[in-house]
Structure formats: structure tokens, C-alpha cells
Amino acid sequence: MTKKRQVMFTLVRGFVAILIALLVATLLIFISAKGEGFSAKLAATGKALQQMLIGPLFRTGRSGAAFELKRLTDIFASMIPIIFTGLSVCIMFSANQFTLGAEGGIMLGAFVTSMIAIYVPMAAGLHPIVAVLIGGLAVAAMMLLPALLKTRLGVSEMVCSLMLNYIVMYLIKFLLNTYLADKTKGQIQSYEFLPTSKIGAMIDTGSKLSWGFLIALVVVVLCGLYMYRTRWGYAIRMIGINQAFSKYSGMKVAYVIVMSQVVGGFLAGIGGGIEMLGRYQTFSWSSLPGYGWTGITIAILAGNNCYAVPLAAFFMAYLSKGCDLMATYAKVPSQLIDIIQGVIFLFFAAEQFLSHYRQKLVVKSAQEELARKKLEESEKKEGGAVHA
Questions:
Q1: Could you tell me the pTM of the whole model?
Q2: Are 318 and 75 contacting, i.e. CB atoms less than 8 angstroms apart?
Q3: pLDDT, tens digit, for every residue of 21-49?
């Protein structure tokens, strides 16, 4: 199958999966909608869908829909952490390593960055950079554990990293509750970050959009160049495609597997640090934030292509904002976003989904290739006859 048709198949497959997820969501909204009769439930469903699909960008009312810049910047702000976890998962999945450590990684990165922001005074421009980098390095070190267990002992990286997420969460909760919490506050949270550690707001619209968004876009480009323009990225992709072939062709498979997970962990860690210093004043996360799970969905939607991560992140942030608005104005549970993510993941993970359509594209490409070769052969024969 040609590259053009491969891209077309991927786009069609993604569109159909998203459409089915939205149809399932619509059905669930209709079932849970309040109303006595069918028409009342239908009207409530329409109102809920309006909030989910239009509300994230437009304020709706009797006079119609009006665009609001703050709503757009809120979506951009929500994209920051999931861009980093999406990139993290893309790199690890590209090496065929189904590591789920981005969830705990972003929490650990946020925690370590917060501690540097509180207890280590520095100059204003240097402080956030050092804090975020140390947070990223801490997560990179954490990801060495599942990577080395996989390469040395054959331990499943999926199970190991999944359990590691909860070890990280409970360890952070223990440290925060026992030693690091500000006891003068009404809830469990750290002391406030030093003013020199803050990442400033990008646009003054009342949203939480920080300069971290621009940093995230720069990191997307850097990750794309790393994966598609360097020998290390090529090695990661080759091992993901065929590990046995890569091994027999001389690649250091174990090293590349470890490297992919360390790089992925570093990205998740700096994402947590940038999110923390750009949005919060103190560290108060008492549970896993969910950004890592969303990052898996983003990587699946992007097809493990780093350049497509921002679009997938925008889609997920848009839907998440829509579900929150739907819960507020239409009384539909905001957990609907988890169902949509689950359905999308289900259809992308199903290898036979749209397999007949893929087969038709393969056959069509083969027929066109055969026709092209026959045409070339006939042209050569005609050219030889004329020359004779």
C-alpha cells in the first residue's frame, strides 16, 4: 500500500473511531437525560451535545453563539501537560514498549519540581529552568526501573510501570502528609512556591495559559526531529517495527529500549514541572492527575507521530472542556470523557477494525502497481521496435 493510502486509511480509521465514540456518548446522554417523554429527553440530549461540541469555544444563549477568547486559551492551557505525556508515550510506544509510567511520572516530576521551587532559592530566570530539568531527570531515573527489569529479567514493562505509578503516588502522599505540608492551611498542600520559580502567564485573559504552551510546541518539534532525523530515533522506530530483525542487523536493542523509556520519562517529568509552576501556587495533588492516561489516548490518535500530538491533544482538551460544561449546564456526568477515551482506545486497539477497507486499499495499490509495470514494459518494447 502506498504511503498516501496508508495515511488516508489512518485518518479514516481515526475518524470512524471518534464518530462511534461520540455516538455511544450521545446514546448514554439520552439514557441519562432527565425528562418525562421521548421529546423531553431528546431536547435535553440536544442541549447537552451543544455544550459538549460548541460550548468549549462559544458562549451560547438566546441571541446565538458568541466566540470567547478565554475559552480558547483555557483549552490551550489544558493541552500543556497532555502534550508532554502524549510525546512521552509516543516515544515509548514507537519502540514497542507499552510502558504506562507517564501517569506516575508527571506526578513525580511535578512534586520534585515543586520541592526545588520551594526550598532552593535561585535567580528568577534560572529557577524554573533548573527546577523543571531536575523534575524531568528524577522521572528519567524512575523509568530506569521498568526498563532495566525488562531488558535484564524479561519483566513486563506494562505491569511494572503500572504498579510503579501507585508506589510513586503513595510515597508522595506520605512525604507531603508527614513532613512537607503547610499545617496552617485547611487542606493538605505544600508551602507556596518562591516568586522566582513561577512560569509567567502568556496572555492576560484570566486563564491559566502560561509560557509552558510555547515550550510544549517547541518540544514537539524537537521530538519530531529526534524521531525522524536522528539515528537514535531511527533505531527506536526500527526496534518497534521488528525487534528481531533489528537485533540481527547489529542494533543494541536493550540499550535502545532503555533509552526510549528514559527519554519518555524525562518528557513526562518536565511536563509535570511546567504544569505545576505555570498553573499552581502550591503542590496539592493527592492522587494521580490522569494526564498520563490521556497521553496514551493522544499517542494512539496521533499514530505515535510526534508532529500530530498537538492536534490530538487539542481534540482531547476540547472534549474534556465540553464534558465539564455539559456536567455544569446539562447535569450530565463529566466522567463521560472517560467513556469516550475508552471507546476510542478500544477501536484503535482492535487490529481487525476496518480491515476489509484496508484490504481493498492494498489490492487497489497492487493492481495499480502491476498496471504501471505493464505500461512501462510496453513502452520499452515500442521504443525498442522504433529504434530497430
A1: 0.88
A2: yes
A3: 888 888 888 887 777 778 888 888 888 88
